Amino acid sequence: MLTFLAKRLLQLVPTLFFVSVIIFSLLHLLPGDPALVMAGEERDLAVIEQVRHQYHLDEPLLLQYVYWVDGLLHGDLGRSIRWSDDVSHLIARTLPVTAQLAMMAIVIAFAIGIPAGIVSAVKKDTAWDYGANIFALWGISTPNFWLGIMLIFLFSVKLGWLPASGYVPLSEDWKTSLSATIMPAFVLGNSIAAILMRHTRGAMLQALSSDYVRTARAKGLYERTVVLKHAMRNALTPVITLGALELGTLLSGTVLTEQIFSIPGFGKLIFEAAFSRDYAVVQGVVLITATAYITLNFVADILYVLANPRLRS
């Protein structure tokens, strides 16, 4: 187990290196001169030269990368032109908002998708199976922006049960915070639940037709034990992979949903930074997103081993 984890950790080093090179290259692949954008509308020659010197744009490309990585190692992600604030401060302010939304969405997705997939597989070709597949088709086909607007119209405008928009941190008032984020979390979790249901159903059907399940049934074990202990545990591997990837997608920013519900999260920061060509913020955001994906894949590898003992060898 420890050897497996050590190998996976060593594999992260070259991955992070190549990711950093690609992210750094984004600044130079975008059209236009970064110094002209950073200098503002006046674009005085003295200001442009000062910007070039300040951001080391007058240095060779390799030295610029070294300066950038050195700043990353010291926690310096640069400074935003649009907001006149450190990128690390902007990310620290917006990422927890999206992280809360993403965790709520993934909990909703797992709570709906996995049980629906298990029931659909166990009750194959019955009304339960058809109903679960209809739910999956509806979840995949329904646009998030339409579902969000419908939920606002029903629960906020008509019933007045939930706030239509806004965000309150959990540390200030957890009840208000949950009531403000439950609708956007459901919007995000709905489509993921549908995908999880289809993957869980497929994995469970394959597991239920395997030899070890037939052997367990031949021993006289209860069907519930066979399904939950033997079949489901082995069917979790693809579901874990999908869950990790979907959580990474949520953490990378849910732009449309955050715009609809006026939530000041990571997605809104990404949209505004890209629109205003705030290079430092774009680089910082993409770096955090890539790191989140790599970390979640590492966590998924650990969960594989915990869920399936055969992988420990």
What series of H and E elements makes up the topology? HHHHHHHHHHHHH
Average per-residue pLDDT, rounded, comes to: 81
Name the CATH superfamily classification.
Answer: MetI-like
Question: Percent of residues in helical segments?
Answer: over 70%
CATH topology: MetI-like fold
Brief rundown of the structure:
The chain has 313 residues and is mainly α. It has a single domain (87-312), classed as MetI-like fold (Orthogonal Bundle). Helix content is 77%, strand content 0%.
Structure explained in plain terms:
This protein starts with a helix and ends in a 6-residue tail after the last helix. The protein is globular and about 85 Å long. It has a single domain (87-312), classed as MetI-like fold (Orthogonal Bundle), CATH 1.10.3720.10. It has helices spanning 2-29, 34-39, 45-54, 61-73, 87-122, 127-141, 144-158, 174-208, 211-218, 223-251, 255-260, 266-275, 279-307. α1 packs antiparallel against α13. It is built from 13 helices and no strands. The longest helix is centred in the middle third of the chain and has 36 residues, at 87-122. The chain is an all-alpha fold.
Helices and strands in order:
Blueprint: H1 2-29, H2 34-39, H3 45-54, H4 61-73, H5 87-122, H6 127-141, H7 144-158, H8 174-208, H9 211-218, H10 223-251, H11 255-260, H12 266-275, H13 279-307
Helix pairs in contact: 1-13, 5-6, 5-8, 5-10, 5-13, 6-8, 7-8, 8-10, 9-10, 10-13, 12-13
